[in-house]
Design brief:
The chain is mainly alpha-helical and 151 residues long. The protein has helices at 8-16, 31-47, 52-73, 83-95, 100-113, 124-145, and strands spanning 20-22, 76-78. The longest helix has 22 residues, at 52-73. The N and C termini lie close together (11 Å).
């Protein structure tokens, strides 16, 4: 299996700037992260009616686990300096706009976690949309995993 070519220059730049690092062995397997995403999504759906803020954050976490799984499968992981933004950049560079919702979710999650005022909350509809977006990202990640090799 050959290296995933699309977005290679962006990935090399993220490695050079230490926003991503290369990993080997068991760390280069994303399957467990997709499994974790599925469990997190189930929890998000369960609590959404009573706690949409937490459900949104959990939906984002599930999307992040799924996205990070794709990188792990390629022997990559975000560093503390790159964090979720590096994951977003790597996703878009390699897999295109189908992962656009991850960036929007990341930004909205930051608004909820670091509110600018006391009224910064989400609705059950917004949480439901986030859960649906995270489910799509999770499905896409599961489908892509087997076609990825070490970068």
């Amino acid at each position: 299996m050959s290296r995933w070519a699309r977005g290679a220059a962006e990935i090399e730049q993220l490695i050079a700037t230490r926003h991503l690092q290369q990993v080997t062995g068991g760390q280069a397997n994303g399957e467990h992260l997709v499994d974790r995403a599925v469990r997190t999504l189930a929890t998000a759906a369960e609590i959404a009616p009573g706690d949409p803020d937490s459900a949104y954050v959990l939906a984002y976490d599930a999307a992040r686990y799924s996205a990070t799984a794709l990188l792990a499968q390629q022997g990559l992981r975000p560093t503390t300096s790159g964090g979720p933004y590096a994951v977003e950049v790597a996703l878009r560079a390699q897999f295109g706009d189908g992962f656009r919702s991850f960036g929007a979710m990341r930004r909205r999650r930051n608004e909820l976690e670091y509110p600018s005022g006391p009224g910064e909350t989400t609705t059950t509809d917004e949480a439901a949309t986030a859960i649906a977006d995270a489910e799509r990202i999770c499905r896409a990640a599961r489908e892509l995993l087997s076609g990825l090799s070490i970068f």
